[in-house]
Write the structure tokens for this entry.
Amino acid sequence: MVNFNNHEYILRVVNTSNVGRAWKRMKKEDKQQFTLRITQANATELVVILYEMLLCYLEEAEQALLADEKAVFHEAVRKARGCLNELVGSLHQEYEPAPTLLQLYLFCIRRLARAEQRQDSELFGEIKRVIVPLHDAYQQIAGQNSAGPIMGNSQTVYAGLTYGRSSLTENMADQGANRGMFA
């Protein structure tokens, strides 16, 4: 189980006869939560979300390796690599921390490739030791960034209790034809 900001993501551990534990990949609700956060995020928050997704995919790959699920392992590594590539692509090289961050991201990409090649989950720990402090630092910075969401024409989501006892529903408002982009 991966826990960020008091939210549980991706993995739910249960008993099984195979490896002693089984796991589930990212559930639909987890994907919806990430999607909602992305649509409402500013640039700094997007970096935080990418770090969280990367850590979730690393955990998923680690658990897939333990369960001897090769296809799931390779898919999780591919998605983790995609997060790292997006982080590399988001760097603005004209600013000072970018070259250092680039070196850290390239280190993580190399470790990820080696982990996939050797099918060695211990290398994921090295990546996590780099990413977790960056996540924490960017999360602090995100609180100071007062810029609005990057996606200016996304849906407005209101969440509230419905008539059920304690069920939570999401109601989409303003579902116009220009959702997400201008025509």
Q: What stands out?
A: The chain has two domains: 27-151, 153-183. The radius of gyration is 18 Å. The helical segments are 28-40, 43-66, 70-89, 97-118, 122-142.
